[in-house]
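Give me the fold.
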Amino acid sequence: MEQLSLIDGAGLGEGRRLREEALADASADGWDNAVIDQALRFFAASGRRFSANDLRPLLPMVRRNAIGARFMAASRRGAIRRVDSTPSTDPGTHAHRIAVWEGTGM
């Protein structure tokens, strides 16, 4: 009998998606979500490309893990789309690549 793994290639992607949703909904309170979403709307309407590197300095009081989750929520709503990647400027991330986004006009 073949043993099934709880985490396979497809399950891992789904697990990450569910984690992002949980972070967006549970780890950030309503104020964090509202402030991050307002900043995302501003950048999306600006007509220029942006990343979390642009938002972080403007949002020092919000939970850092909530920022990425709100980007994903905005992407799922169709408000922004991924167009590139760039190194993160957050020292804790050791310059790993993060998404660059642009507004969709929605």
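The beta strands are 50-51, 80-87, 97-103.
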